[in-house]
Amino acid sequence: MVDALQGLTDGFAAALTPTNLFWALFGVTAGTMVGVLPGLGPPATIAILLPLSINLEPATGLIMMAGIYYGAKYGGSTTSILLNIPGEDASVVTAFDGYQMARQGRAGPALGIAAIGSFVAGTVGLVGLTFLAPAVAALAIIFGPPEYAGLMVLGLSLVLMLAGSSLLKAMMSAAFGFLLSTIGLDLFSGTTRFTMGQIELTNGIEFVALSIGLFAIGEVMMNVEEETGRQLFKVPKRLKELFPSRKDVKDSAAAIGQGSVLGFFVGALPGAGSTVASFISYTVAKRFAKHPEEFGKGAIQGVAAPESANNSATAGAMVPLLTLGIPGSASTAMMLGALFLYGLQPGPLFFRDNPDVVWPIIASMYIGNVILVLLNLPLVPLFASVLRIPYHILYPGIVVISVVGVYSIRNSMFDVWMLVVFGLLGYLMRKTDFPTAPLVLAFVLGPLFERAVRRSLILSAGSPTIFLTRPWSLAFLTITVVLLVSPLVLRNKIPTDVIEVEA
Amino acid sequence: MKLTVRKVDMGIGVVVALFGVFSLSRALKLDFYDEGVPGPGFFPSGLAMLLIVGGLALTVSRFVKPDSESEDFDLPSRFQARRSLGVWIALLATVALVNAIGFILAMVLLVAMVLLGIERRRGPAAIATIILIPLLVYLLFATLLQVPLPTGFGGG
């Protein structure tokens, strides 16, 4: 603890030089700007700007990278809230309530609470990274396939909470999403599944094409059914209404708190990442909300929880990267590449052998967090003013940006075709009252669940008791059963009417 | 004949069940079990069966409900369908042309089809929008972020 505090103090002394501050500001700004665009998420942004860091000192270059990582994570929420276009995977959940808030003329408070939640959760995550890194790294190590399987069962069971008016439709939507996720090469056997001879499908369906198609294109098709010769949403003119009120902040406090803690721990698990963290945090916020029926219809906690988890997970993901040398996501894999570029080898001795690099990076993340909130809160009115544009001009722009954003991920026209297909599917699902959220959730969690179950059964030579003999796995399964059974026991309905997600 | 939510759901249930049958037929060609542990066909088969059961359950549950209890289905009017499907068809057509005519021209065409064909907008503002949206997006992605967007057969 004392060592960590001393290291952090030294880190701040090193990070607070004009050069490092400039590159932190540059990284956060560039990350936010690129993060706003769909498709190009944090890994792509880091990759684009990686050559720029080669000529910098290791600590300075890595400070810039960390800034990009943070900024891009935050930027992704902006288009989710304003236009229903998830800028990156982890921003999908933010769109559920953020976009509904924008429709109700509350884009400003949604963007504001995203910034505040990101700042608080990012800081909580960094405190965790500073003081709990070794302990959390040890936890990450004992998390084997059975524990992941238990966690994913818990995650998939949360699909029930994303049900709209029909639980049956939600389950069908989830099964379809899971089935879609199985398309492509099966890494265990080397067999291709459901590719229909299309070589492009070997790598599976691109998540961003699926989510932007379902959400952005599907929403545009719904909105244009009516005349669009006016701005679609009300945008308040008074500056006061463009920021979250005291009540908004108070209402969001618990969601930010749980998102901060959950996000850090889930983010620290390699492979789980901020997308899973944001989904879990959202559903937990709903489960324990006073008015769960407001979720999916513009509940501010529905923005605060996933945005907090998303940003806290960023700090969490740095734990296995710095202490074990294990990148848990594409973004941290890029960060690992940057560390290698400077001849640094993260691992158990990294903190001891390279304090001059590690602590300035961690300190700069605290600074980056402050820069992020200072940069973004004043920009809220500017971002919200996008909605003043008449919809007949706005929506062709949404469609064009969606096409380019999806193309830019793998430079693939096939992905753009997928966008077109999922756009129509999103429209039809809205028309027929099929919730899209369970499809997306199952698409994300499905492959993680399948991988974990198959690995576990390989470890146990096919015996399913492995899920009951490992404490963490058993704990997750027990929580799942309690969550599913408790509404029945309490003589409430299974929460089919709890949440209606219109995203 | 009045179209109700009940009838639409029954139809969807049948479509989903048929899709499940199709998926199951493909999944059964994969190994269900491989050396005592689930193989590549294990999860797809289970999910396809879930779709079949879910689809049939939806159809049956709606079938047993009297039609008089069901709400009318919110079928889009011809005007609404023309607009929403018009956007989708414009997108489909331009995506088909991207590789041939390049990104900028294709997106100009897309915005033009939407603004002139669906929105019936005329005048300098519409022309400016048709040119500016694709141009700004191109500058942002292709020039600033170095995304290699398709240039078409002409290479321009």
Question: Would you write up a description of this structure?
Answer:
The complex is a heterodimer of chains A (503) and B (156). Chain A has helices at residues 2-15, 18-36, 42-53, 58-83, 92-103, 107-142, 145-157, 167-181, 207-223, 246-268, 273-287, 301-324, 330-341, 350-353, 355-384, 391-410, 413-431, 437-459, 466-469, 471-489, and strands at residues 184-185, 192-193. With 503 residues, chain A is mainly alpha-helical. Chain A is globular and about 60 Å long. Chain A has a two-stranded antiparallel ribbon with strand order 1-2. The N and C termini of chain A lie far apart (44 Å). In chain A, a hairpin with a 6-residue loop joins β1 and β2. Chain A has one domain (2-489). Chain B has 156 residues and is an all-alpha fold. Chain B folds into 2 domains: 5-69; 78-144, no CATH class. Chain B is 68% helix and 3% strand. Chain B is flat, with a radius of gyration of 24 Å. The model of chain B has no long low-confidence stretch (mean pLDDT 90). The interface between A and B is large, with 60 and 64 residues.
Give me a quick take on this structure.
Helix content of chain A is 71%, strand content 1%. Chain A is mainly alpha-helical and 503 residues long.
